[in-house]
Amino acid sequence: MTVIEVLLVDDEELIRAGLRAVLDAQDGISVVGEAEDGAQALGLVRSLRPDVVLMDVRMPGLDGLAATRAILRAADRPPKILVVTTFEADDYVYEALRAGADGFLLKRSRPAEIVQAVRLVAAGESLLFPASIRRLAAARAERAADGGAVARAGLTEREGQVLRLMARGLSNAEIGERLHLGVQTVKTHVSSLLGKLGARDRTQAVIAAYESGFVSPAADSCPAADEA
Question: Which of helix, strand or coil describes residue 170?
Fold first, then answer.
């Protein structure tokens, strides 16, 4: 069994202890380290090479946003980063997602939601909390009538279809079913559109789609996509 190795970064020891208790109780997940600030996290990412980092947004010293940017710049194979926050509608959260974080997690989340979030971002084949990302994008997007950066990326018609379904929270398997494609073919399209958009992963690609107006947060509504 492949084990997902997790690094916890939070200035509150009680929060770290709670997250460790939840995650270490799961098969296939292991907490390999803890950091109490962003600066300490940088060194631990280099030495421990975790698969997923749970990163508190607001910390004294180097905060979660700055630490996320530093980790993604410095690591040759950066971990997936889950921003942990008290408030969903937080500019720090949105900027962290734009900077390369793979998703966010509320501190009040239930244990099952925490575990699901870690597994989901580790797999990298589905969007975490797509409805919440839609709301964040809708509140901040400067939409361009021509599709902006996405239009300039030169996506094929099929890649555009895949991106729209990604924005609705569908996994690769679900996109394949919708478009009558094999999962490997969907993965190829996803990889291609990420490269064209210069996006680290599907979260950044979807944010670009919303911000450019290629996808409308108001019009793109799918009940099934609102589930994590």
Answer: coil
